């Protein structure tokens, strides 16, 4: 063997050592609502995750293996979420789950124990409820609902808003938001002067609208999902309601603006627990917008960056596994890589999964729709 051949062999061996080539696709699965009132959220999260996965695949995948993104529609029915999660574990052998939507759905999966039995991580769980944030093998990439509510009530107190109306979804989401609101109200001298709830997985908000019109609070906090929040704003404003409306981060602000138009949306304030598309000083946002401009996916929306971040977190973990081992990634390997992430910079948005029972971020910001639908910080 001549010197050139030896050199090429050595280089080839080095490349294989640095970048192992895996023999099959790496399956990532999402069990989420793709039909029903919450389909808008499931589709938006999916579109954001796919945007990043497609880019990774275009660049050669993970160790030469493509990411195969599989979905199942649970219509946001908790029993279906559990059944389909078990099914994908048995049939697809994913390395991770991503983007399951809904507090009650996630709590059902956590209580079932399927994640622990399979040693499987669920990245980017779409809920900030305390029971979800503390769930084993569950990784939340944004601030918790209690972080969000605490910041909001402190801001309301600074604005001398003392009488607040609270509208919640009648389920685990609503219960968690309500508990956080009661605690935050007491700390900040805010009185929750009116309460109303609407049925889960519906947009039947007329009774809640009437309750708020009669109570006339200074501001109304919507602990609601996207479709129901849009319908509440529509009906409340149409009937002369003039309180300032504050929506939780789980409400897709772009969908609200698109469906209501700039005039009805004007003055709607919302909390942001992930970077906004307007924050172009962040590399994460610039990367997201760069890829989004190339996409024709109609499901990309304001909520999609959450799926994008979750996908980036998962890929970071997969690459860490690939750099440390020539074996194909297993769920257990990915789980350990995620648990070891400390001060992981996703491009100006830093996440830390090292504290069990805490979400990876405490970032909470606020914005409002101004004239012409422009976002005002």
TrEMBL record:
Q: Which residues form a coiled coil?
A: none
Q: Which Pfam families match?
A: Peripla_BP_6
A biological-process GO annotation = amino acid transport
Q: Which UniProt keywords apply?
A: Amino-acid transport, Signal, Transport
Q: Which CDD domains match?
A: PBP1_ABC_ligand_binding-like
Stretches assigned to the Leucine-binding protein domain: 28-370
Q: Which residues form the signal peptide?
A: none
| Protein family according to the UniProt entry | Belongs to the leucine-binding protein family.
Protein name, UniProt field: Amino acid-binding protein
Q: Which organism is it from?
A: Parazoarcus communis SWub3 = DSM 12120
């Amino acid at each position: 063997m001549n010197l050139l051949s030896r050199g090429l062999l050595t280089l080839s061996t080095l490349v294989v050592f640095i970048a192992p080539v895996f023999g099959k696709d790496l399956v990532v699965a999402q069990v989420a609502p793709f039909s029903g009132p919450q389909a808008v959220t499931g589709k938006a999260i999916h579109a954001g995750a796919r945007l990043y996965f497609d880019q990774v695949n275009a660049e050669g995948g993970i160790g030469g293996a493509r990411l195969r993104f599989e979905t199942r529609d649970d219509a946001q029915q908790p029993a279906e979420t559990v059944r389909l999660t078990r099914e994908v574990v048995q049939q697809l052998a994913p390395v991770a789950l991503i983007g399951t939507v809904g507090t009650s759905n996630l709590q059902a999966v956590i209580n079932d124990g399927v994640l622990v039995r399979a040693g499987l991580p669920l990245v980017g769980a779409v809920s900030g409820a305390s029971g979800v944030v503390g769930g084993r093998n569950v990784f939340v990439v944004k601030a918790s609902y209690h972080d969000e509510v605490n910041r909001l009530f402190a801001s309301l107190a600074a604005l001398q808003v003392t009488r607040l109306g609270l509208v919640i979804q009648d389920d685990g989401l609503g219960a968690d938001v309500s508990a956080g609101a009661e605690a935050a109200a007491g700390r900040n001298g805010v009185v929750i002067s009116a309460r109303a709830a609407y049925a889960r997985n519906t947009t039947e908000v007329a009774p809640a609208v009437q309750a708020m019109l009669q109570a006339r609070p200074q501001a109304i906090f919507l602990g609601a999902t996207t479709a129901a929040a849009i319908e509440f704003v529509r009906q409340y404003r149409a009937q002369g309601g003039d309180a300032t409306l504050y929506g939780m981060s789980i409400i897709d602000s772009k969908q609200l603006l698109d469906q209501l138009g700039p005039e009805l949306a004007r003055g709607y304030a919302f909390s942001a627990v992930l970077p906004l598309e307007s924050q172009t000083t962040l590399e994460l946002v610039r990367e997201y917008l760069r890829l989004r401009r190339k996409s024709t996916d109609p499901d990309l929306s304001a909520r999609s960056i959450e799926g994008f971040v979750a996908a980036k977190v998962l890929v970071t973990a997969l690459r860490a596994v690939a750099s440390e081992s020539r074996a194909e990634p297993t769920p257990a390997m990915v789980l350990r890589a995620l648990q070891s992430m400390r001060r992981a910079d996703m491009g100006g948005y830093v996440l830390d999964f090292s504290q069990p029972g805490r979400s990876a971020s405490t970032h909470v910001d606020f914005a409002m729709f101004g004239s012409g639908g422009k976002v005002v910080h």
